[in-house]
Each structure stands twice: as C-alpha cells, then as structure tokens.
Design a protein that fits this description.
Elements (H helix, E strand, L loop, with lengths): L4 H16 L11 H10 L4 H8 L3 H10 L6 H9 L5 E4 L2 E4 L1 H15 L4 H10 L13 H11 L1
Helix pairs in contact: 3-4
C-alpha cells in the first residue's frame, strides 16, 4: 500500500488548525439581564450565581460593577473586607484575628530584617504558616498586600 505523504501532511496541517481554534462560550454573567434577574429579583448571592453559571465569583463581581447593578450592603461589606488578612467578622463587627495578627508581626519582622517579598513567601511556606484559606500556599501578592495594608 502506497501512502501519499504530501496529502497526509496537508490533512494533518488542516486538522491541527481546526483543533487550535478557540471555542467561545459566552457566560450568562456577562449579560446585565441575567445578573439583574439572579441578583436583584431572585436574591441570589454572587457565590450562588457563580455556581449556577459555572464561573468564578470574581467574574460575577466584575460584571455586577461593570453593569452598575447596585450591591446589597451586606454583599458590599463581605466582598470588600471579609477576606482581609488579620481580621474577622463577629456579630457584624470587624475584630482582630489574633492568630493572623501574629503572622502579620512575623511578616513585618522578616521584612524589617531585609528579606525580599520572595524570601518571605518561601519562609512562610517552609514553616507551613497557615493562610487565610488554610490549605493554600503563600504568594508574593498576598505578602505585598498585607504589608501595604499596614501603612
């Protein structure tokens, strides 16, 4: 059996081009009507909407702001401050998280000792220092933001 290698090469080249084309599936979260219905009418939280649409909650926040959909007060507070390292919410009030405050002091000490952000991250990960989400590793931006928030 004789195989025409140039014909096969042409077919494979065309086939690769087809495979490399991106498939665009537009999220419903990009549409204002969808967000108004879910957030304002059905009273779903951004996290619940994200699960329904199969996107991240950050995507929902982005499009809520982009479409200028008014945020509920409790969602605004939760989104802006709930994840601030060193703080927690108790009975609707923001209070210091003592365990995280100790980690902040450790970060400040390391930075004052002249360590770079990368060296601090490596030290925190080596010491298995817990993060806000408890199961993740430390990142440069996290350490940078913690120190920036102290100023």
């Amino acid at each position: 059996m004789v195989v025409n290698s140039s014909a096969n090469a042409t077919f494979l080249t065309k086939f690769r081009i087809v495979l490399s084309l991106p498939i665009k599936c537009k999220s419903l979260a990009t549409r204002k009507e969808f967000l108004v219905q879910k957030y304002l009418v059905e009273n779903l939280s951004p996290n619940q909407i994200a699960k329904v649409d199969g996107v991240s909650r950050q995507t929902i926040w982005t499009y809520l702001r982009k479409h200028k959909i008014p945020l509920r007060e409790n969602d605004r507070v939760a989104h802006n401050q709930a994840r601030t390292f060193g703080w927690k919410w108790r009975a609707g009030k923001r209070v210091k998280n003592s365990a995280e405050q100790k980690i902040i002091e450790k970060i400040k000490t390391l930075r004052n000792a002249g360590l770079s952000y990368l060296e601090i991250v490596k030290a925190l990960n080596t010491m298995s220092t817990p993060t806000k989400s408890k199961d993740k590793k430390w990142h440069l931006t996290t350490v940078y933001r913690i120190l920036k928030n102290l100023k």
